[in-house]
Design a protein that fits this description.
By secondary structure, this protein is an all-alpha fold. The chain is built from 5 helices and no strands.
């Protein structure tokens, strides 16, 4: 099985960090990863279904999966 790439590792690292105030996370996404927030969230959503991501950081991936599932059931 292939390892996660630098971009995928960067996304997981960003998701582990707390952000103070509105816009701070979006700014970090643009500055640190060079992605638009829309593209970032597309990649993050795909990454949550990737077993390599789960193996690398199970706490973060499972937390984000729970959040995603709760938002889906709210709709």
């Amino acid at each position: 099985m292939e390892e996660l790439g630098a971009r995928e590792l960067g996304i997981l690292a960003l998701e582990r960090r707390p952000f103070a105030g509105p816009g701070a996370k979006e700014r970090a996404i643009r500055e640190e990863l060079g992605l638009s927030p829309v593209r970032y969230y597309q990649l993050l959503n795909a990454l949550l279904d990737d077993e390599r991501a789960l193996a690398h950081d199970p706490v973060t991936v499972n937390r984000l999966r729970r959040i995603r599932e709760s938002r889906r059931t709210e709709r």
